Amino acid sequence: MVSPVIEFVEVGPRDGLQNERAVISTADKIGLIERAIMAGARRIEVTSFVNPARVPQMADAEAVCAALPDRADVTYIGLVMNGRGADRAIATGRIDQLGAVAVSTDQFAIANQGQTSDESVEAAKAIIAQAKAAGLTAQATIGASFGCPFEGEVSEARVVQMAQRLAEAGPIEVALADTIGVADPAHVARLVAAVRAAIDPLPVRVHFHNTRGTGLANVWSAVAAGARVVDASLGGLGGCPFAPGAAGNVSSEDVVYMLERGHIATGMDLDQLIAASAWLSGIMGRKLPGMVAQAPRFPKVTATKDA
Ligand code: ZN
Asked: pLDDT-derived band of residue 246, with 50, 70 and 90 as boundaries?
């Protein structure tokens, strides 16, 4: 049941940075993307096409796309919330995959996207259709799959039903996102198994934030329950020091360390990730939450790398 291989998606340039107060230069965003590729990432969420007045960090979406490394083997993902965003992403000619998000509860969906939960599912399906019509692929994400900041507990049956409806539109996978970092490993095991059964053979992707320290345990639980794709962010970016309760994504290097130690292949190079995390810490001007990059290398590297 447990796959010996997972697909890794680096989301630092979008989900990680979007939650950071300091606006990062386009050149540094490209530096981050280049380092993620060097570390082995072959799917990267590079930006989002949203209202720049609302999300200043993503105001350079087109400039980031224009400067993306020319790599046929890398899938660049652009997050979009509506048809207008999808038009912008497609118009760059550099985005390979559109990311669409539906939200599990009405109150969160209204606060986040100005629409009900059902409307957010229909909007996501329309984005998926738009991507396919333009010759792109699409991924679908269910935000607040494990809990809502407004409504609290989220019904598992509701998330399963949303996953089925999104799957009908033909995304490459459906993701369960713990947007506010409330998930626990037992909940993750149940929901991943239920959604997997509902959308089979479509893969389940998972997206965790480490707000309550359960992030890595949730990744492990999800993979054990059959999730095949895992989102993570270099350094655990996104933990804004000025916003109490806001915490970053699970850290790429921590996730890769854990999975590779468990003989689950990620395709990622841990040493390169650690180097990239150290570089990013310098760019952000602070220590990042990820732990593996701050600890001594284990096991010690004995062989010299290719000279
Ligand atoms: Zn997130």
From this structure: low
Cβ 233 vs Cβ 252: under 8 Å: yes
Annotated active-site residue 240? The verdict is yes
The string of pLDDT tens digits covering residues 147-199 is 999 999 999 999 999 999 999 999 999 999 999 999 999 999 999 999 999 99
Higher pLDDT, 84 or 301: 84
Domain total of the chain: 1
SS3 readout for 205-261 = EEEEECCCCCHHHHHHHHHHCCCCEEEEEHHHCCCCCCCCCCCCECEHHHHHHHHHH
Instruction: Examine residue 290 and state whether it is found in any structural domain, yes or no.
Output: yes
pLDDT value at position 300? 87
Distance from Cα 12 to the centre of ligand 1, integer Å: 10
Q: What is the CATH number of the domain that holds 40?
A: 3.20.20.70
Residue 302, pLDDT > 80, answer no
Report field, pTM of the whole predicted structure over 0.85? yes
CA atoms within 13 A on the CB side of 103: 22
Distance from residue 231's CA to the centre of ligand 1 (Å)? 9
Q: Looking at 59, 126, 240, 275, which residue is catalytic?
A: 240
Q: Which helix or strand (DSSP H or E) is residue 123 part of?
A: helix 117-133
Contact (Cβ atoms closer than 8 angstroms) between residue 183 and residue 211: no
Domain that holds residue 266: 7-294
Nearest to 253, CA basis, from 280, 228, 225? 280
